[in-house]
Structures are given as structure tokens and as C-alpha cells.
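Two records follow; treat each independently.
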Amino acid sequence: MRILVVEDTQVLGQAICERLTSLGHGVDLICDGKQADHMLKYQAVDLILLDLNLPGLSGLQLLQKLRQRDDDTPVLILTARDQIEDRIRLLDAGADDYLTKPFDFGELEARCRALLRRKQGYAANVTEHGNIRVNRDSRQVFVNDELTAITNREFRLLEIFLGHLGRVLSKDEITDHLFNFDETPGPNAIELYVGRLRKKLAMGDLRISTLRGIGYVAEITQSAKSE
């Protein structure tokens, strides 16, 4: 998924980005609140990790502006404030969750998974789609109960399709979700990843159709729906 980290402590921000990138996410770091607000007016992301003490625009102000634009992107606040009043104010302002600094990276990953899962409409980390079972915690995919070898990037591509079943996704949309700003995927990168995913899920009930000149659409096959 595409994640934006807004954190003015460069060392911490880079550490978070490296951790999430290693899981296959496309991650970008911005250290200034005003710059982040400008970027979010034009670029959609799947999750925002937001520090409160930012130059240019505070994290709380950025959050308020985001919600005033009716942008419902999940926001996880990273804060050193541990007073209950502060937490209530953040949640009332539109935050989806918060994590008090210093935090454990394992807990950060779990909270990110929960928010991304919730955005896709799933209540549990393990979901079934026809004969395909997806475990977002262990990043494993099973087809007919058999483990399928899959890379982090392919797993994230699968998540993108499962989160948009029945909806046409252009190559640009998939690229925006799959890569960060610093990456420059080749013109055939999406075709390559989709082709690999199709091959690995060839026995599964997920059909990824190519619409020439438009993009891709993923659907659970009719046979799986009727069972």
C-alpha cells in the first residue's frame, strides 16, 4: 500500500520508512506539515503516519484540514503526548488511531495492518476469497490450502486488487499504490507484476482481466461465489 510518513525527526522517519518498505509498501517521507498538506491535496495515499510537532503546519492542523476536505484516509498519530485529554482531542479531530513515542516497531506494523485492513473493508487479518486465503499478518497466500510463494511486492499488488474488487484500476492508479516517489518503475513494470501474480494464482478463484488501453479489473469467479 502507499503510505505517507509525516515526521520531522529525520532519523525516526527514515527508520519507519525502511521498516515499512521492507514489507513491500510504497513509502514516502515528508518532514514539513505545510508540504505534506500540499501533497495530500493532489496525491491520494492509503495511510498517513502523522507526527504532531511539525514545522510549517502542526500535525493537528494538517489533520483538521484533511478532514475538512472530506478526505477519509486513515491517520495514525505518532505522539509523545500521553495525557488522556490529548488523545480524546486527536480522536475527535478525526484521527483513526494513535501510538505514543517511544513505540515498538512490531506494534506500529500491527496498527498499520489494522487500519489498512479496515479501509479495505475486512475485519480480520486472515480473509478468504473463493479458494484463496490471505494472511496479512504473516504475508502468506494459500490456494486450495497450499502455500504459494509470493514476493512482498506481489502480495501488495494482490491486496490492491482485493481492496478494489470489480473496479477498473488504471496502470497509473496501481503504480501510485505500489511504488513511492523515489522509485521509477519501467513502462512495463505493472504488466510484469500482474503477469507474475496471475501465474502464481492460476489455480485460484481470483480473475484479473486486462482491459486494453484502460487497465485491470479483478473479480472472484462466479463458481467461487456460488459455492
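The next record belongs to a different protein.
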Amino acid sequence: MSLDAIAYPTLVYVHLLLFVLWLGADVGVFLLGQHFRKRHDYTLEQRIALLKMLVLVDMTPRSAWALMVPISLSVLAAGSWWAVPGWLLIASWIVGGFWLWLVWDAHNHDQTPRAARDRKIENWLKYGLTAFYLWLGIQSLVTGAPIDQPWIAWKAALFGAIFAAAIMIDVAFKPVGPQLGKLLAEGSSDETEIPLRRTMDRTRIWVWIVYLLLIATSWLGVVKPVL
């Protein structure tokens, strides 16, 4: 096989691999969070250990998410589904690589001003990419351009919706930091546990939305329905 012939199926394989890593590891994050909530089954020390493991496992879906940006556009270009402008393809790899660096740099310097700066920049990237994928999907569905295949346009729109829902996960989860600090300082009690549990319950709603959107997006990619 020539390099051109093997490039597209290889990119599709990487795309699927990133999906598996994203959803699979995220289920692991979800299960660890479920066990963290069981205050009567684990000691506080055990629950904190589960939380540390959760944060580490969560680096896999966060990394996969960042890499999905350049890979998704590369698949479109290599498969001739869309004549992606060269500058946009190059920009997607720069953005994806920079985003991946931000994710790991924030993790390696957690609880520091540097991590806070990284996450602020990452948030702005997410807002921009949310707008881009929603525009790409909706514009293509309405006008048939720049993507003329409705199932791909729907994938783009749903990917934008995944961005929006994932942003809401971070928004809903934000109170956890102070609440967890209070739990560690004052110990386990209804006063410290119930507000934390409520925050986690609200966050789970957006997590389930992301799961459903990921499943719908992957179904479109495999079935390629005529819409």
C-alpha cells in the first residue's frame, strides 16, 4: 500500500482509539467518583486516595479530547470529506498540541498560579472550539457547505455540543474545591458532606449528557446514515 492509501485508514483508527480512550477512561472517572461518594463504606483517607486516582485517570479523556481536534479535521481532509484549508489543518495541530501541553502543565503544577493561568487559557480555547464546531455543523446542515454530507455535519454539531456540555461539567464542579477543603479541615459530617454530594450530583447530569453525545457521534461515524 502507498503512503496515501494507508494514511486515511490510519487516521480513522487513531480517531476511534481516541474515542475508546476518552469514553473508557471517563467511565473509570465516573466509577471512582461514585465510590468517593460512599462516605459510610470508606474512611476519609481511602476516599481521598480514590479522588487522587480519579484525577490521574481523568488525564486520559482530557488528553484524548485535545487530540480529537486535529485528528477530526485530518480525517476529513484525508478522506476527501471536506477540502480543509491548509492553514486550518496546520492551526488545528498547533491548537491541539498547545491544548495538550496546557492540560499536562496544569496537572504537573496543580494548586499554583501557573496551573490557574493554564486552565484559564484552556477555557478560552474551549469556548472558541465550541463556537467553531457548532458553526461548522450548523452551517453545513443549513447550506450544504463546507461539508456536504449531513451525517458528518451532524457529527461536527454534536462535537460542538460535547464541548459545551464538558464546559458545563467544569462550571458545575467548580464549588468542589472549597467544599473538599472544608471536608478535609473539619472532617466528615452532614454539614461538610451534603453540599459536596449535591455539587457532584449536579455535575453528573452533564457527564451523562457528554456520554450520550459521544455515543451518538460515534454511531454516526460508524453507520454513516443517509440523512
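Discussion point: Residues 3-36 form the longest helix (34 residues). How would you locate this feature using only the C-alpha cell line?
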